[in-house]
């Protein structure tokens, strides 16, 4: 008989019921709820998060395979993006249930340079592994790099302009505004800035 029929047998349903009563956590990816908020148990939410992480790990390994074609690479990359969104949703839900704060922990790890599974990001979409080598992705990355360089050069020009303006302002003193015009020119006495 088929797997679907086996799963509906009385013995399998009884075993699932006993596991649920015993507190055994569900880990079958096919039974993972679509709506994260429907899980009210913190241990079960953490179990689903770990299941998502294991799926991410498998797909990150799969996307590096040289035998897959461009279409498969795009599909796997799409799956990875959706899995990372789902992982993030589980992390927020776990935090709201009173569990560990995986969000800030992950940020601290990335800042320390320990993990970098984020891939290259273009307009909010991340590219992993061989997906970075696709022709249209390379063009998008080059365009993004050019925009970044243009912004950097514009920022440098603006900084130089500000420095030039500051140096001009440093050269302007009270004599520029005519404070010393009223003083007797024969004594060449200057009024200090503290007196004014």
Provide structural commentary.
- By secondary structure, the protein is mainly alpha-helical.
- The protein has 6 helices and 2 strands, in the order αααααββα.
- The protein is 58% helix and 3% strand.
- It has a two-stranded antiparallel ribbon.
Q: Average pLDDT, to the nearest integer? A: 78
Total strand count, please?
2
The portion of residues forming beta strands comes to: under 5%
From the spread of the alpha carbons, the general shape counts as elongated
Q: Quaternary status of these chains?
A: single chain
Could you describe the largest sheet, including whether it forms a barrel? 2 strands, antiparallel
What's the alpha carbon Rg, rounded to whole Å?
32 Å
What low-confidence regions span 5 or more consecutive residues with pLDDT below 50?
A: 112-116
Strand order of the largest sheet: 1-2
Query: Given the structure, what is the number of helices?
Result: 6
End-to-end distance:
101 Å
Structural class: mainly alpha
Helix content estimate: 55-70%
* Sequence of secondary-structure elements: HHHHHEEH
Write a concise keyword list for the protein shown above.
single chain; 196 residues; mainly alpha; two-stranded antiparallel ribbon; 2 strands; 58% helix
Give a short summary of the structure.
The chain has about 200 residues and is mainly alpha-helical. It has helices at about 5, 10-20, 40-60, 70-95, 100-110, 135-170; strands at about 120, 125. α3 packs antiparallel against α4 (about 70-95).
Layout of helices and strands, plus pairs?
Blueprint (H helix, E strand, L loop, with lengths): L2 H5 L2 H13 L19 H21 L7 H27 L5 H11 L7 E3 L2 E3 L7 H37 L25
Antiparallel strand pairs: 1-2
């Amino acid at each position: 008989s088929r797997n679907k029929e086996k799963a509906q047998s009385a013995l399998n349903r009884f075993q699932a019921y006993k596991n649920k009563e015993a507190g055994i956590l569900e880990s079958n990816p096919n039974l993972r709820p679509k709506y994260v908020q429907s899980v009210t148990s913190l241990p079960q939410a953490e179990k689903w998060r770990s299941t998502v992480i294991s799926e991410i790990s498998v797909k990150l390994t799969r996307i590096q395979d040289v035998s897959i074609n461009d279409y498969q690479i795009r599909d796997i990359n799409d799956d990875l993006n959706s899995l990372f969104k789902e992982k993030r949703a589980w992390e927020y839900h776990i935090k709201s249930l009173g569990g560990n704060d995986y969000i800030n922990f992950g940020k601290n790890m990335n800042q320390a340079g320990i993990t970098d599974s984020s891939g290259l990001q273009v307009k909010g979409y991340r590219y992993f592994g061989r997906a970075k080598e696709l022709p249209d992705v390379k063009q998008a990355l080059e365009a993004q790099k050019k925009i970044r360089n243009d912004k950097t050069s514009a920022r440098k020009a603006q900084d130089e302009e500000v420095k030039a303006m500051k140096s001009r302002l440093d050269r302007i003193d009270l004599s520029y505004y005519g404070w010393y015009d009223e003083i007797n020119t024969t004594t060449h006495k200057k009024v200090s800035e503290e007196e004014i």
